[in-house]
Amino acid sequence: MPKLVRRIEPSQSVPRSAFRVPRSLIGAALLFALCVACQGDRRTPLVIYSPHGRDLLTLLERRFEQLRPDVDVRWLDMGSQEVYDRLRSERANPPADVWFGGPSTIFARGAHDSLLAPFRPSWAGAIGPHGRGPGDLYFAAYETPAVIVYAEQAVPAAEAPQDWDEMLQPRWRGKVLIRDPLASGTMRAVWGMIIERGLKQTGDTAAGFQWLRRLDAQTKEYVLNGPLLDQKIVRQEGLVTIWDLPDILLNRRDGLQLGYLFPKSGTPVIEDAIGVVRDARHLAAARAFVEYVGSVDAQLLATREAYRLPARLDLPVDSLPPWARAVRSGMKVADVDWDVLAARGADWMRYWDETVRGKGEGGKGKGR
Fold it and tell me: What is the pLDDT of residues 316-352, one digit of tens each?
């Protein structure tokens, strides 16, 4: 039985506007594809929207289907913000059953917009208090650090930016690439950290937005998606960027020469959540998948095979692979008020897009 097409990603050479299909048609097309693909298949289709990428999603799909042969896992991979936008547009008749992945700040907006259904998995008590959504609507599954990344062949580790402010040095002008923040939960979290840092220091958001204007002046391009960003850094179309640690570690495993480091002043660690979609068509299967993702076996599997830091606090340290233990011991976690980001982040991003993007000194960073 053929699988549903899982990833729809415009190529670099095709205008982005060419892929703007009315969301009502997207939902209808997805439902039609599911019906066609499932003819003659008695398994329950489970539709997952996720930004987690092929490596992790394929890994969990195969293992979950082994445990539940009555379920056919089908996933669509897209940016965190794109998941939220699609769920909002489809909430009257949602094709998705599970929302898997994205910062808790975006999930908080989804909870406010009634996009999630309450479900308390058995592992909920192993998650820190801030990783639990209101009313059991979502729970953190992983912790995702954002790191500074550089082209390893061109930039020695000692010469790479060691902290956020070093990315503003003149030698990086025109050599910075940034994943489009409007579509990326990771970049929204980093931008929110910068703005909130300035707010703590000065009592105003102006300092943070000024910092982002200076970075905009350094930025050669805002790149459409994560895989393209990684490739551009490897090809040295830019030399430094900011991205999430699991993606970089997966690419290094696959041979891409990407270096990374944890900023000295602190790394924002995103609580990467999961929840059941409100009015999910396959509620029992959706709950079973959420239960599985947070299980000890699935948490350790994702850590060992896909470089995910587990959100569970009850896993023995010696059960984690060496890379995870090294991150836990060596990373300084930035002090971020995630509640403030959840409440104000969407407005901050709109303001950034209207007044900062492409308007830094020299007019850099105009690409989307």
Answer: 999 999 999 999 998 999 999 999 999 999 999 999 9
Instruction: Give the CATH number of the domain where residue 243 resides.
Output: 3.40.190.10
Instruction: Indicate if the pLDDT at residue 187 is higher than 70.
Output: yes
Res 361: pLDDT: 60
The domain tally of the chain equals 2
Q: Name the percent of the chain lying above pLDDT 70.
A: 87
Task: Kindly compute the dihedral angle of the four CA atoms of residues 231, 255, 184, 188, in this order, to the nearest 10 degrees.
Answer: -110
Rounded Cα gap, residues 56 and 75, in angstroms: 11
Which residues are paired to 310 by β-bridges? 142
Place of tokens 């987690």: 52
Identity (one letter) of the amino acid at 33? A
Torsion of CA 22, 222, 243, 172, to 10 degrees: 180
Predicted local distance difference test score (pLDDT) of residue 115: 98
Identify any residues that bridge with 242 across adjacent strands, giving them in sequence order.
148
CB 200 within 8 A of CB 221: no
- CA distance linking residue 268 with residue 275, whole number of Å: 22
Residue 242's domain comprises 145-268+332-355
Sequence-distant contacts of 10-13: CB under 8 A, at least 24 apart: 10/224, 12/224, 12/228
The pLDDT assigned to 10 comes to 35
Q: Which residues contact 347 (CB under 8 A, 6 or more apart)?
A: none
Based on the domain organization, do 93 and 218 belong to the same domain?
A: no
